[in-house]
Amino acid sequence: MDYTKKIIRQSNAWYNDGLSKARIRDLSGAVQSLRRSLQYNRDNITARNLLGLVYYGRGEVVEALIEWIISKNLRPRDNIANGYIRSIQNSARELEVINQAVKRYNQCLISCRQNEDMAIIQLKKVTASHPTFLKAHQLLALLYLHTKQNAKARQTLAAARKLDTTNETTLRYMHELAQVRGKKAKKRENKGTKRKKKKKETIEYSLGNETIIQPAHRMVRELAGRFTVMNIVLGAAIGAAIVWFLIVPAVDESKTDKRNKETIEYSQRINAMEAQISALTRTLDGYRADSADSEEAVQTAAVTADSYENLMLALEQYNSGNYSEDMVADTLLNINRASLGEGGQTEFDSLAESVYPVACSTKYDSGIASFHVANYETAIESLLQVVRMDESYDDGGALLALGNAYLENGDSEAATTYFKRVNELFPDGDNAAEAKEKLEAIAVASTENAEE
Prior knowledge:
By secondary structure, the protein is an all-alpha fold. The chain is built from 17 helices and 2 strands.
């Protein structure tokens, strides 16, 4: 009994430490303390709810929802987490903005290795739409540092520091920025020293109306010494030239042998260097392959984490009864089923079986309605979702309608893809007949355009 009280007391102590850190925006420290609190007592509802708020304060909405959902399951009634979850559910527009910001951030993680300027533009949009998204501020600052836009990097890091005063990543980037500034200051200092040194090496004085500039005495002595050495070297060179012309017939043969030996020696050195370069190249290729594997593993882990988060969110939406089937389907379509484990795939299939039929009907009707009012882009968006959920919906009717929408929108190539798919899946149906007619019309139009 005393042992249980001691554990609870230790959990509460860590909660109090996390609370005091959260009040001064030390969010990283608060996360560590609150996690310690939950390690001692996972049923500490107050600590779990505060941990969700800290995550939310750093812009990590999904992590916050996970903590609040766990809290709600531990204590369904009289739990402030219910209010937090309802608040997010009621602000569907804000949640969609955050969702889009997170998607853009994930895309930037990939695109920043290919096009830094485009990644910077996208991240500026992310931080504008989701100002508390700490990771987006940090990645933007890193790109500014990499492209040597130090002033913008400093501003971005200042914004990140306001969100979380002791975040290790932010502090590391600020230290890197300070080192860059220090190197620049040192270069300026060295330039100033060189200028002063150069001035000391000359003497200026006035003679009548003219200003005379001459080297300092030390330089005069150096120049005199150099001229003396040059005279000695010149005399030696003249003597050597005389001797050379006298004995040149005798040394031709030995000179040729020496050159041949030097050529063989240089050739051996070059071969050895080429072998070393080849070995280093193979080693470097191995490192690059390992790096590529590591990056792929990180991306796979990120996809898996996102899929599980979306699965938990979809289950919560479905069980709450506050979301329609088509809204739950939107969340399910963001899940990569292959990245889930066996249990996760079972949950996904069960939920999809309950949600997809109704969602397909709703989105199919919406797509057809948009098509009839010539809103082809919206029609394509709705019908694409139907095809992703059930490619054979309405015996190929969804595929045919999607092809028609693409055709009317001016994308005959995409239209051809879906018309052919109708023929592959339902070769003897009414929809296949219409699809064949459309394919023939596209072929005729293509031929006429080629002749023109």
